[in-house]
Amino acid sequence: MSKRQDPSGRSPSAPAKAFDEVRGEGPWPSAASRRDFLKLAGFSFAALALPGCGRAEEHRAIPFLDKPEAVTPGRASWFATMCSGCEAGCGILGKFRDGRPVKIEGNAQHPLSAGGVCAVGQAGVLSLYDAQRLGAPRAGGTETTWENVDAAIRERLAAVGAGGVRVLSGTRNGPTSEAAIREFLAAFSNGRHVSYDAVSSSALLDAHAALFGRRMLPHFRFERARVIASFDADFLGTWISPVEFTRGYRAGRSLADGGARFSRHYQFESRLSLTGCSADRRVAFAPGAHGAALSNLAVLLAKKAGRTRPWAPVDDAGVPGEALEDLADALWSAPRGETLVVCGTNRVDDQKVAAWINHLLGNYGDTQSVKTIDIQQPSRQRMGDDRALATLRREIADGKVAALITVGCNPVYDLPDGAGLVKDLEKVGLVVSCASHMDETASAAHYVCPDHHTLESWNDAEPLEGMVSVSQPLVRPLRKTRAFIESLAAWRGKPQSAYDQMRRVWKRSVFKRQADHASFDRFWNAAVHDGFASLAPQEGDLPRFHHDRVGPAKGPAAAGGDALSLVLYPKIAMGDGRHAHNPWLHELPDPVSKVAWDNYAALSPATAARLQVETGDVVVLEAGGRSLELPALVQPGQHASAVAVALGYGRVGTDRFHAVGPQWIEGEPTVEKGGQVGINAAAFLHVADGRLSYDTVRVAVRKTHRRHELARTQLYDSLHVPKHLAKPGEHARPIAQEATLDAWRNNPSAGGHAAHAFKELWPDDHKYTGHHWHMAIDLTACTGCSACVISCQAENNVPVVGKDETRRKRDMSWIRIDRYYDGDGEDVDVIHQPMLCQHCDNAPCESVCPVLATVHSSEGLNQQVYNRCVGTRYCSNNCPYKTRKFNWFSYAHDDTFQNMVLNPDVAVRSRGVMEKCSFCVQRIQEAKFEAKRLGRELADGDIRPACMQSCPADAIRFGDGNDKESLVARQRGDPRGYRVLAELDVRPSVTYLRRIRNRKEHAKGEVSHG
Amino acid sequence: MPRRMRLIVLSITFLAVLVSLVPRLWASRFPGDHTGYAPPQPLDYSHRLHAGELAIPCMYCHSGAERSRHAGIPSANVCMNCHKYVSAPIGAIRAEEDKAKAEQRKPRTIVSPEIRKLYDALGLDAKMNPDPKKTPVPIEWMQVHRLPDFTYFDHRAHVSAGVTCQKCHGPVETMERMRQYNNLSMGWCVNCHRDAHANGINGKKVSPSLDCAACHY
Predict the structure, then answer these.
(1) Residue B98: inside a domain
(2) How far is A643 from A886, CA to CA, in rounded Å?
(3) Which of A401, A528, A656, B208 would staple A164 via disulfide (CB 3.0–4.6 Å)?
C-alpha cells in the first residue's frame, strides 16, 4: 500500500503517496465521511441487488391461432406494389414485417423506376399511420356510416336528371379507374370526367395535340441524349417523372470508355432548380423569356440545317444570345436523334417551338427506331387538361353542374380563386370529396368519402402506354375507408370490390393487349408478383408532324428595369401540397436552399441587396390587389428579376404540427395554434390562354421590419477560404472536388489535391482480416434529390424534431445533403455532397469517449452503443464531419398509431444518447445471417443500406473493401476517388468520386469547389 | 434491566432478520437477471412430455429458429397437427377404451382439461370443427426469455452455426414448466462467443463476432 502508483500516470514526477496520507484529502472532508461513503456504497449496492430477487416484469407472447404459411414472425416479406406519391407510377416494394408495412423501397425490376424511389415516395409509409386520416365517411361534417352516405348520394344522383355530373380528378391513368369512372358516368346524360394537375403540364400535351393531331405526353428518354437542353424543366427534381428521368440522365452520363457517352446538359432557368445544380452550363434568364429564347434557338438551328428561317429572330432583352449559340452548336454537332430539348413552362407556344426544334433535330424518331422522344409508347403520367378545367370552373359558376365528385385533387386549394370556388360550389347540388383528410375541398363538400391509402388498396396505373403498374394492398384498411372505385360502383348501384373490378377490367381489356401468357390467371399472378405488366406496343404509323402549325413564341413581355416577376414552383418534398400532413417531408431540407418547414420568397443576391432584404426578413409580395407575407431567402443563382415562391404550403390542417418536436420551456412551436406551415401561394397563379401560368405575374416586393427565422440546416454556403486565412495558392477547401470531362480524360485524378503521406505507427494493429465495409459515393451521379435522407429516416427510426429544434441545429438526420455554391450572383456552380458518418478507421470520436460507447468493430464499422452512452457529446465535438446527432430530448413517440412505422430492427434511442449512421448494420447482420442460413458466402450486393437502395441515380455503393472484385473496392481504387478531410489521417471508409462536369475549360479555374 | 432486555430483544430480532435473509442471499442476482424465472402459463404445457418423453424435435414447433430472429411460439394450428387426434394422455384414452369394451359401448372422446383450453382458444366444437358460436381467442403465453430492447439476438445464426437449443435454454426436455436456465447476460453471451471462437462448435470452426454492433444497433 505504501508505494501505490498513481494509476492515471498523469504526474509521474509527483511523489507517490501512502494510502494513509491520502486520507482526509480530496472531496471527503474527514475520515468518517469516507467510511460513510463506503457504507452508502454498500447499501446502494444491496438496494440495487435486492430487486434482482424480484419477479421479472411480465410480458406476454401471443402467437397466431392459425399462422398464414408465408408469415414468419421476425422475418420481413416484400410485396411489389405501386407508388402513389405522384402520378409517375414508379414501382415499389413494400416491406411487411409482423403485420404492418414499415418501409418502402424501389422495385429494381420496374421498367420506369428500376429500383429508385424519391423522397416523397419513401415518406408514403408514414402517411399510412396518420392518425388524422379520415376514419369514416362524413356527411355534413359529421361521421356516419357507408350505408347512410351511399343511400343519400344515390338518392341525390337519381334526382340529377339532365344536370351535369362531373368527376374531377388528378391524373388517373389506370385502366380500372378509367373504366370505373366511365361506367359511372355512362348512367347520366350529361356526365364528364375532367382531370387536371395541380402542377400542370397541360400545354405540353396541347402542343402535341396541335402538332401531331393527338393529345399525348411524349416519353422523354434522357439516357439516349448526348445533349440535353432544359428550359425551366426541373426534370431531376419535380417535373413529370423525376425518378425515371434521374435514372436515364445518370445512364446517359457514364464515364465508361473515357466518357464517350457523357451527355452535355444546358439549363436555362430563372430560379435555381435541383436540375440546374447538375447542369454543365447553367444560364439564369428572366422569367417568361423561354418562348423568345426557344424561338431564337430555332432560328439558329434552322440556319445550320440550311432551312429557310422559320421566323425572324425575336428581339428580347432577356434572351442570352451567346449561350444560345453555344447550345445550337452543341445540339447541331451531336448526331440527329440524340439530343433533347425540354421546356417546363405551361405555355403552348413555348412547347410548340420546343417540339419543332426536337423534330428538326430528329429526336422524335420513327417507327423503326426510338430516339430521345418516344411517341410510339407515349407517357400518360400527366393527363390534366387545363382548358377542360376552365370550362368546368365556368359551368360551376353558372350553376350548370348538378353533382361534382372530386378525387385525388384539391381544387379549392390548388386553384387561384379558392374562396370563389367555395362560394360557387354552393350552386352545385351534390359535392362529394374522396379526400383522405378534411382538406380545403372536403370542407366545402356535402359528403366526404375517404379513399384508401395506396398500401391498403388494389389499384392500377398506366404510366406509359403499354406499361401497367399494379398496386396491391400490404395491409387491411386500418380505418373505415373505401377505395374510390368501390365508391363509384356502389353509387351506380352495382357494388363490387376493387379487387373484383380490377380483375374484371383486366380480363376484358388488359389481358388482350399482351402476348406473353396464355391464361388470364397466369398473366394476373405474374403482374401482381412483379408489380407491373408490359403489354404489346400498339402497331401503326406515328402521327405526322405539322410544321405549319408552329409560330414564334413570344411569351409575356420581359420585365424591364427593376420589375420583378413571381415564379411559382413545386419543392422537392412538398410538391403540390398533397403530402402536407407528412412531417418527414416538412422536415426534409430543400436540397438547394437547405430550408425545412417553410416556404419563402427567394430573391437573387442583387435584388435582395437593392431591396435591403436579408434572409429571414419578412417581405410582402403584392400583385393585382393580392398580397402575401413571406420570409425572404437570398438565393444565389437566381435571376435578378425573379421572385421564387414554392407552392404546396399553407395547407389547412397543418396546425397539427403545433406540438411536433419536444415541448420545453424555451421551445417555440413549429406553427402557432390554428396556424399553417408556410403560406399558400396559389392565389398568385393566373390563367393565361386557358392554362395555369406559373411564372409571369409581376409583383412588387416590400420589406417589412419583422423577422421570421427560417429553419436552415446549412449556414456555410461556400468552400472558399477567406483571403486572410488562405495559404498561397489555396482558394477552396478540397471537400467537394470536381473536374471537367476533358481534364479528367487527360488525367484521371484531375481536380485532386496532393495528399500528405502519413506514417502508420502501428501497422499490425487492426488488420481487418474478414470484411471491411466501405462505401463509395459518386458525386457525378448524385443530383441531391434527397431520397436517401428519407430512406434513412424510415429505416433507422430517425425522429422528427420540429422547426424550432431544426433552427437550433438539432435536426437528427443521419445523412444530409451538403450543398456548396461556387461563385455568386446569378452565375453559380452548385455541388451536392451526401454526408454521413465516414466510419473512420482512425476515428477521432472513439478516442475521446470516456465510457467506450463508440468503438471500432473488427469489420471497420464505427459502432455507437446506445446502452453505454452517457451523453458527454465529446465524440460529436471531435467529429470533423459533424455527422453525430445527440438526442436532446426523448422525441415524441406518444403517437402510438404513428409508432407503427418504427422499424423493429433498429432500437429507438432515448434522451441523452448520441446516435449516427451505422452503415445500416441491421442490414449487414441480416444479410450475414441469411447467407449463413443458406450456407453460402456473402456476395457483393447482398447488403444494400437504405440510402443506397433508394438512390435513383445509383450514386451510392456499399460493400466489402477486402473483396477485391467488389464494386466498392474498385471504386475505392479509382483515381477519381478521394476521401474528405484525408489530411487529418482519420482514414474514412467512405470514398467520394469527383464530380465531372462536361464543359470547356472552367472560367474560374479548373476546380471550383475544391 | 430494561436496558438489558432491550439489548436481548434487539439482538434476537436482528438475528431473526439475518437468518430469514440467508436463503435470499443465495438467490440474490444482479438486476435484470431472471435466471429461474418460470411464470405459470395459461395452459400447462409440458416440455418434458413433448420434447423429452415424446422426443418431438424442438424445431418442429419452434420452426422460426431456423429462418428468423425469433424462434417463435407455435401457432395453435401447429398444436392441432397432433392434437386433432390426441385429446388426452394416452393412458386415459386406453382406460376409456377398456372401460367401453367392458361396458360394450363406443368409447367416449376424452379431452384433458389442458387440451380443452387449446380447443377453446380455437373455438372448436366437440367434433373438432369451428364452432360459429365461439370466438377464437389467441393463447396469451407468458414470455420467459426476454432480452432488452437494445439487444438483437438472432436464432437463425446460432442454429445454422450448430449451437444446440440446450446450450442456452438448458435441459428443456426435463422441464415440466418452462424456466429460464441461463442468465442471458452480456457476459454470458460473450464468454460463449469467445469459447466458440477458440474451440469451435462441435469441432466445426466458427467465427462468432465480438463486436458491439453484432447485437447492439
Answers:
(1) yes
(2) 37
(3) A401
CB contact under 8 A, A56 and B156: no
Q: DSSP strand E in A829-954: where?
A: 829-835, 854-856, 862-864, 885-886, 914-915
Three-class SS state of A622: strand
- ipTM rounded to 2 decimals: 0.86
pTM: 0.90
Q: Closest to B157 (Cβ–Cβ): which among A62, A866, A929?
A: A929
Question: Closest Cα to residue A660, out of A732, A601, A584?
Answer: A584
Whether the pLDDT of residue A130 is over 80: the answer is yes
Q: Which residues of B touch A53 (CB under 8 A)?
A: 24, 27-29
pLDDT above 70 (res A126):
yes
- In sequence order, the β-bridge partners of residue A778 are A993
Phi, psi at A76, each rounded to 5°:
-85, 145
* B144 falls within a domain: no
Q: Is the CB of residue A918 less than 8 Å from the CB of residue A849? A: no
List pLDDT tens digits, range B144-157: 998 888 999 999 99
Q: Which sign, positive or negative, has the C-alpha torsion B202, B203, B207, B212?
A: positive
Q: What percent of chain A has pLDDT over 70?
A: 92
B130 located within any domain:
no
In a domain, B94, yes or no: yes
Q: Which domain holds residue B112?
A: 86-116
A588-643: per-residue pLDDT in tens? 999 999 999 999 999 999 999 999 999 999 999 998 888 899 999 999 999 998 99
Q: Return the pLDDT at A44.
A: 60
For residue B66, the chain A residues in CB contact (below 8 A) are 933
Q: Do A65 and B24 touch (CB under 8 A)?
A: no
- For B216, the closest of A63, A72, A867 (CB atoms) is A867
- Average of per-residue pLDDT values in chain A: 87
Query: What are the b/e assignments for A889-919, b being 16+ CB within 10 Å?
Result: bebbeeeeebebbbbbbbbbbbebbbbbbbb
Chain B CA closest to residue A97? B68
Tally the domains of chain B.
Answer: 1
What average pLDDT score do residues A238-257 get? 92
- In whole angstroms, what is the distance from residue A806 CA to residue A816 CA? 13
Question: What domains lie within chain A, and their CATH numbers?
Answer: 1-51 (no CATH), 138-199+384-466+479-513 (3.40.50.740), 205-378 (3.40.228.10), 564-712 (2.40.40.20), 738-760+767-997 (3.30.70.20)
Supply A733's cell numbers. Answer: 477547401
